Each structure stands twice: as structure tokens, then as C-alpha cells.
Amino acid sequence: MPGRGNLLWTGFGVLALVFLLSPLALVVFFSFAENQNATFPAGGATLHWYGVLFDDPDFWKALGNSAIVTLTVGLVSMVVGTAAAMTLARTRPALANALIGVITLPIMLPPLVLALALATGYSSLGLPLGLGTVIPSHVVFTQPFVILVVHAQMASFNMAVVDSARDLGAGPWTIFRTVILPIIRPTLIGATLMAMAVSLDDFIITYFTIGGGMTLPTMIWGMLRKALDPSINALGALVLVATVGTSLIALRLTRYRG
After folding, report:
1. Options 3.40.50.2300, 1.10.3720.10, 3.30.160.20, 3.40.50.720; which CATH number does 53-254 get?
2. pTM, whole model, 2 decimals?
3. Residue 65 contacts by C-beta under 8 Å, 6 or more apart in sequence?
4. Is 229 helix (H, G, I), strand (E, B) or coil?
5. Is 93 left (phi over 0), alpha (psi -120 to 50) or beta?
6. What is the mean pLDDT of residues 177-188?
7. CB of 246 within 8 A of CB of 190?
8. Region 124-151 average pLDDT
9. Can you tell me the distance from the alpha carbon of 224 to that of 116, in angstroms, rounded to the nearest whole number?
């Protein structure tokens, strides 16, 4: 009986995995298929739909906007998140845990609620929607990832090396640059890449706060509303590879096992 139970659970796990991954695999598969209806038989292999996508000027505008947002969000999240994590590491555990609960609130809220709150806030302040509102909106829900990951590293950091550097006359910036940063660099880079992956893939908050512009996810949404354009599979495959690849590198660098 135990063996049969394990077999059933294994079978269920395999089916669940197939159910989750098969749509993603189909997006990549049909991005190389000749059949423009994205149905079987798929026909031969082709790069035609990637050519159609690259000839679309809207793609390059969306790619440029996504690059600006993602890189800026990653940089801001890294700086602010690292400073916050180091401060929390020196704070009393009870207070630090309470502050972390407040900081991580944006990632616990439903994205639709957060997007609506941000859009309402910008409207009440009279701020025009655009990349200038998308970037801080993304920082709101990306920097908690950086804070949590870097704080976990700093919580186990050997502060004796910092005290030794301070005793030798090193200032705060010198201590950070020559002692702390070399040790936490892989974790810091991984956490930043994680924040960038989350930002690149976001649709709901971007849709509510970007106004008339577009990023790659909102471009996909726009293409879906018009017609079943086969080049949408090529765009989806590119976003998928970028997001998954960045996430895997981030998990590798941070050695995250959660």
C-alpha cells in the first residue's frame, strides 16, 4: 500500500507539472511553427514570426521602455533595499520583524488592489501617468524581495570583521566597500536580478500606471485584444526566456532554497 500511495502521488505530481509547463512549451513551440493559426499540424520550423516581430516598430518602443523600467527598478531596489536590510540587521529583532512585516505588505496585497491604489494616488496628486509613475510603482513591490534576501544574509554576517576594520580606523564607506560588499556581492546581485525579473514580467501594475505607453507585457495584451497574431508567440517566448533566465541566475547566486 505505501508503494502504491507513493506511485499515485508521483503520478499526480507529474500531471500537475505537465499541466503547468505545457502551455509555456506550446508558446515557444508555435513561435517557430509555420502554421499561423497556432494549431496542429504545426508545419515546418521557421524564424518568420521573429522577423515579423523585429520589423514592428512598436516592439522596439516597448523593449526600450521595458529596459528603462527594469534597469532603473533594479538599481533603485538594490540601493534602497541594501541600505534597509543593513539597517534592519542592526535593529532589535522584535522591531526588525515588525518593520519587515510592514515593508513586505505590498507583495502580500493582491496586485489588482495595489495597482488601483497606486493609480488612484497618482490621480489625486495630479501626476501624469508614464514611465515616471511605473518605475516607483515597481519599486514598491520589488524592493521587499531585495530587503528579505539581503537581510537574511546580513543576519548571519560575522560582524567581528566589521569591528576589526573599525578598530583599524576604517570609515563606514570603506568598511562597506572593502569588507561587507565583497562578502554579500553574490547575494546582492542575485536579489537585484530577482527584482528585475519581477519588474520585467509585471503586467497589472504597469497597465494601471503607464498611461499611453507600453512595455513588453502590455504590448502582448494589446496584441491579444486585436487578433491572434502569430508573432505574439515569438514575443511571449522572448519574455519567457528573459524572465526565467534572470530568475534562475538570481536563485543560483542567492542560493535560495525556499
Report:
1. 1.10.3720.10
2. 0.84
3. 131, 213, 214, 215
4. coil
5. alpha
6. 85
7. no
8. 92
9. 23
